[in-house]
Design brief:
The chain has strands spanning about 1-10, 15-20, 30-35, 40-45, 55-60, 65-70, 80-85, 85-90, 95, 100-105, 105-115, 125-130, 135, 155-160. The chain is mostly beta strands and about 160 residues long. It has a 6-stranded antiparallel β-sheet, with no helix packed on it. The radius of gyration is 15 Å and the shape is globular. It starts with a strand and ends with a strand. About 30% of the residues are buried.
Length: about 160
């Protein structure tokens, strides 16, 4: 289980948001960031074209017990950059820590707090392709390694316990 606190500034004011594993987000197990209020949990102004409608996502990897950020535009012909701690994130997910800075377009999101709690019955999210294959969440936006279908709009599911 986790809790993450983020801080960012737009042209009008500063924003702070704390999200925990128990909070309801637009998509289970995923904190989405972008301009589309129907798709995203962290929302930038719609007229800020340096940020995509659905630009990046933060997710928890239960096996590594870490939070990561992933670029949701990586399958575009020209992906929009996500910069984490001065490193470009296109294909791979980048780990987050207290003090990490996520840059999307002209905006910076500061990770001001991360807390992890031990839980014996920790829930781990994954994705299910349209053919029923269960995969770890870090495959979202990729292709199913078993059947090759796109996982871009895959169903988020709780993974079975080992």
């Amino acid at each position: 289980m986790y809790k993450i606190s983020l801080e960012w500034f737009d042209s009008v004011r500063s924003h702070t948001r704390t999200i925990s594993a128990e909070d309801k987000t637009k998509e289970n197990g995923l904190i989405t960031i972008g301009r589309d209020e129907n798709l995203c949990d962290i929302i930038f102004p719609i007229n800020e074209t340096t940020v995509s409608r659905s630009h990046a996502a933060i997710f928890y990897d239960g096996k590594q017990k870490k939070l990561f950020v992933k670029n949701l535009t990586r399958n575009k012909t020209t992906p929009n950059p996500v910069i984490v701690d001065a490193k470009s994130v296109i294909l791979e997910a980048a780990p987050l820590k207290i003090g990490s800075i996520i840059k999307l377009g002209k905006f910076s999101i500061n990770v001001i707090q991360i807390e992890f709690t031990a839980a014996g019955d920790e829930q781990v999210y994954g994705v299910r392709c349209i053919n029923g294959h269960l995969l770890p969440y870090d495959h979202i936006g990729d292709f199913c390694p078993y059947c090759g279908v796109s996982l871009q709009a895959s169903e988020t599911v709780l993974m079975p316990r080992a």
